Amino acid sequence: MLEEKLTDAPSAAAVHRDLTRSGYRVVSVRPARRGWSHWIYRQMPTFFGVSTSDLVLFSRQLSTFLKVGVPITEAIRLLRGGTRSGPFKAALDDINSDIDDGESFSVAISHHPNVFSQLYVDMVRAAEYSGSLDRVLLQIAVYLQRQDTAIKKIRSAMIYPAIILSLAVGVCGVLIVVVLPNFVSLFNEFHAELPLPTQILIAVGSFAQAWRFQIVAGALITTFAVFGFLQTAPGRVFWDHALIRLPVLGTIVVFAIVERFTRTLATMLRAGIPISETFDVASASAGNIRYRRQLDLVRQRMVTGDGFSAPLAATGLFAPMVIRMVRVGEETGTLDQSLEQIADFLGQAGTTLIELLVSTMIIGIAVLLLVGAFSTGLIDATLTKRNTAVTAATQYELEKIGAAAFSSSPVPYSECFAVDNPAAPVAVALGGTCPAGSSLRVDVTENDSQPGVQVWTVQVITYPALDAIGTPVSVYKVNR
């Protein structure tokens, strides 16, 4: 009876040997076919990332295996079977094959930049040269875990203000572009002298309402153009130089850059790798072109025997506290500890600044929303006040018409009202010309529809603009 079995072994000969010892008669051995998902992971690695937690666990376990003498290919094969990540399994399969073909571990993992960062590859390469791969892998795991924790803190702190800011921008945009232009006619009716900020807002809203499609297209084109420029070498230089000069945010970025540099350098020094071999890796971890250029000059001076702290101070990019701690560590032989303390201090300082920035943003957004709510309420109150005055003045005239005796020769008239109290406007004068202080004028006209029946029409207009408000109200009066 033929039976197919799927097993894991370093070679076909090993599979044949293991199955024979288990009592099987082996007819043929062939490589297992990979599923379609494995092919997708290989062809489109950009869409399938590997989590930091997977990398941390892999680095720790591989360090343990290497420390107890397990060959690296066997260790990777064991770790491959323990991970649940499909993309990570595909990457580890390729890494093992490359190592079997004679490549070093650092070269093999460099073929998978979506899994292993350049910093990871550089640290592994330096560890291979010094023969301390197990120690460096453990330090990498600690470094990645700290970095992941810091990123999660920043994200969790920024989610709430980002949501509030988006809502605030959306609400203000709707108010300025949609709501405010609709009240232009209201302001014109009262001929009020609007403050300059209000005039600017109305102009911006009217412009945005008239050119909304062109504005959206222009914003999209500008966004793509800016992103395209930032992908070029001059764009990256400009961005890196401008970013560290921003108020508050620039300080946070500088803290992050120096923290990465000092922590990477401390990690590799603690693993026993000489500073001359680790400096390039630590410099690359800074991630900022301006810092990397200055750190290259520091390395050149270190090679000529100028030490570390003096060239570092000459760059002008590091705080005096950092220079003093580096100098103390350099003189006492505890440079790795000094660098670790600097990284811890800057990491905490950066977190504090981020929390302060988030708190300030939340307060500012809250004030913005309150101002928007107050402005909306003020506009709504103004509109309600006008409508109340118009209704009250119309009702006043209708009652007056109803109370008057029927006249065969009625005289049309106009009456002026002051609306200091919108709920009860006061009639201040009769006639077409209203005195100062009037806000409304009611024109009352009449026509005879048939003998003994009159139709009175009441129309409210603003004064002195003389713009009609609402629709005329008609009432029939019969001679009894």
Principal-axis shape equals: elongated
**Could you list the spans in which at least 5 consecutive residues all have pLDDT below 50?**
none
Characterize the main sheet.
Answer: 5 strands, antiparallel
State the helical fraction.
Answer: 55-70%
**Rg, please?**
39 Å
**Largest sheet strand order:** 2-1-3-4-5
CATH C-level name of the largest domain: Mainly Alpha
> What portion of residues belong to β-strands?
5-15%
Number of helices: 18
Overall structural class, as computed from helix and strand content, comes to alpha+beta
Strand count: 5
Report the CATH architecture of the largest domain: Up-down Bundle
Report the CATH superfamily of the largest domain.
Answer: Type II secretion system (T2SS), domain F
| Count of discrete structural domains | 4
Order of helices and strands: HHHHHHHHHHHHHHHHHHEEEEE
Quote the average pLDDT.
78
Explain what the structure shows.
The protein is α+β, with helices and mostly antiparallel strands. It has 4 domains: 1-32, no CATH class; 36-116, Type II secretion system (T2SS), domain F (Receptor-associated Protein), CATH 1.20.81; 158-387, Receptor-associated Protein (Up-down Bundle), CATH 1.20.81.30; 404-478, no CATH class. It is built from 18 helices and 5 strands. The protein has helices at residues 12-21, 36-43, 52-67, 72-82, 86-100, 105-110, 118-130, 133-179, 184-190, 196-210, 212-230, 233-243, 249-270, 275-285, 289-303, 309-314, 320-332, 335-403; strands spanning 413-418, 426-430, 440-450, 453-462, 468-478. The chain is elongated, with a radius of gyration of 39 Å.
